[in-house]
């Protein structure tokens, strides 16, 4: 995971009756466990592995960066509090320490509560 080319993602299926806990917990686990607790890499590297590195590798133009004209996909999190809470008996438990999420510039999570389920869209690779 610490290798410079290693990316972070999840292949979970959100419409499964009993999804794997990593669907909701992968990204907060990287921030909390691997970056903050284990010190495998710094926080900026963790975020890059989940955003810019992945978007660039998969040819997702305008994603994974904060820049004029890019999609406004932003996550506001408390680096000291972020923690995955999803477990096999509660796989959809929301993570701690992530009060706001914007998807395509629309608020999807407000004060830790999901408020917009359909802000995303299917992304196609740009060659």
Key features of this structure:
single chain; about 130 residues; alpha+beta; 4-stranded antiparallel sheet; 4 strands
What is the tally of beta strands?
4
Which strands sit side by side, in order, in the main sheet? 1-2-3-4
Round the Cα radius of gyration to an integer and report it.
14 Å
Helix and strand element order:
HHHEEEE
Biggest beta sheet summary: 4 strands, antiparallel
Helix content: 10-25%
Shape: globular
Low-confidence stretches: none
Number of helices: 3
Structural class: alpha+beta
Mean pLDDT: 92
Task: Describe this entry's structure for a reader.
This protein has 127 residues and is an alpha+beta fold. It is 24% helix and 11% strand. The chain is built from three helices and four strands; from the N terminus they run αααββββ. It has helices spanning 22-37, 43-50, 52-57; strands at 74-76, 100-103, 106-110, 113-114. The chain has a four-stranded antiparallel β-sheet with strand order 1-2-3-4, with no helix packed on it. A hairpin with a 2-residue loop joins β3 (106-110) and β4 (113-114). The two termini are 27 Å apart.
